[in-house]
Design goal:
Layout: H1 38-61, H2 72-117, H3 119-134, H4 141-148, H5 152-176, H6 180-188, H7 193-230, H8 236-245, H9 249-277
Helix pairs in contact: 2-3, 2-5, 2-7, 2-8, 2-9, 4-5, 5-7, 7-8, 7-9, 8-9
Length: 282
C-alpha cells in the first residue's frame, strides 16, 4: 500500500491527559507519573516499623513460644542464617516457575488469538478451558508424579496448566475489547485480518495481556510450591514441609518471606513493563 493508504497505528505512549493505564489500575500505588514522594515513602516505612515492632513487642511480652509464632527478628535471623541452604531450593523453584510459565503463556496467547479469530474454535475449546480453570492443579500433581516421576517434569506441567488458562482468558478479553470503529477504519484502508490483528488488536490488548501474564505467573508460583510440597526432595515447597515437620518455625516463615518477596517481584516486573509498553489511555 502507498504511504497515504497506510494502516493507522496506535501510539504506545501516554495519553494526552497524562494519565497512565497500567495493570488493573494498580498504579494507584504510585503517585502521578509513578514516583512516590518522600512523605509517602516515609509514611510507608513508619507504618511498617510500627507493625513489625508491635508484633515483636507483643510476642515477647506475652512469651509466645517460637514454635507457635516466632518474632520477626528471629525470622530475619533465620533467613540470613539458613539462606545458603535455602538458595539451591530457590533456584529449583525458579526453574520450574520460569519453564512452566513460558510454556503456559505461549500456549495461552496462541489459543487466545485462535479463538478470537475463529469463533467456532472457541465453542470447541471453551469447555476444556473451563475445566482447567475450575480444577485445582494440585489435585493433578500426584497423577503427574505417577506418570513422570519426582523430577522437574510434573511440576513444570502443573505450572503450565495453572498459568496458561489465566493468560488465555485475559488475552482473549483484550483482543475482543478493540473498538469496532478502528477495525472498520482499517478494513476501509484494505487491511487484511492478519494486519488488523498485529497492528490494532495486539497493541490495544497489551494491558489485558500483561494482566493475564501477571496473574498466570502468580498462579504458577503457588502451583509450583504446592507441587513441591506434594512430592519430591527439592524446592521451596519441600523446605516448607521439612521445616514444619521439624517445628523449625523461624526457618519456615523465612521461606514464606522469600515466597512473598517473589510474588512482589512478579507484580513489580509486570507493573514496570506495563508502565513502559502499555501506558496509553484505553
Amino acid at each position: 500500500m502507498s504511504g497515504g493508504d497506510a494502516i493507522p497505528e496506535f501510539s504506545k505512549s501516554k495519553g494526552g491527559d497524562g494519565q497512565d493505564v497500567s495493570l488493573t489500575n494498580l498504579s494507584a500505588f504510585a503517585s502521578g507519573p509513578g514516583v512516590k514522594s518522600g512523605a509517602e515513602v516515609a509514611a510507608i516505612l513508619v507504618v511498617a516499623v510500627v507493625i513489625i515492632g508491635g508484633i515483636e513487642l507483643a510476642l515477647r511480652i506475652f512469651h509466645v513460644p517460637q514454635y507457635i509464632m516466632p518474632p520477626p527478628s528471629a525470622i530475619v535471623y533465620a533467613l540470613f542464617d539458613e539462606f545458603p541452604l535455602i538458595a539451591p531450593h530457590l533456584g529449583y523453584t525458579l526453574v520450574e516457575l520460569v519453564s512452566g510459565f513460558a510454556i503456559g503463556a505461549i500456549v495461552g496467547l496462541v489459543m487466545a488469538a485462535v479463538i478470537t479469530q475463529f469463533p467456532f474454535a472457541e465453542k470447541i475449546v471453551a469447555p476444556y478451558i473451563l475445566i482447567l480453570v475450575t480444577t485445582p492443579m494440585l489435585a493433578l500433581v500426584p497423577l503427574l508424579i505417577l506418570r513422570f516421576g519426582f523430577g522437574y517434569a510434573p511440576r513444570i506441567i502443573a505450572v503450565a496448566l495453572a498459568a496458561g488458562p489465566m493468560v488465555m482468558i485475559n488475552a482473549a478479553t483484550g483482543f475482543r475489547r478493540v473498538d469496532s470503529a478502528k477495525i472498520a477504519l482499517a478494513r476501509s484502508y484494505g487491511a487484511s485480518t492478519l494486519q488488523i490483528f498485529w497492528k490494532i488488536r495486539a497493541p490495544m490488548a497489551l494491558p489485558m495481556i500483561l494482566v493475564g501474564l501477571m496473574i498466570g505467573a502468580i498462579f504458577g508460583l503457588l502451583t509450583a510450591v504446592g507441587a513441591e510440597m506434594v512430592g519430591g526432595g527439592f524446592g521451596l515447597g519441600n523446605r516448607l514441609t521439612s521445616y514444619s515437620s521439624m517445628i523449625q518455625m523461624p526457618q519456615f516463615f523465612a521461606v514464606v518471606l522469600i515466597l512473598s518477596i517473589l510474588g512482589i517481584l512478579i507484580y513489580v516486573l509486570f507493573f514496570l513493563i506495563g508502565k513502559k509498553w502499555a501506558s496509553w489511555e484505553t
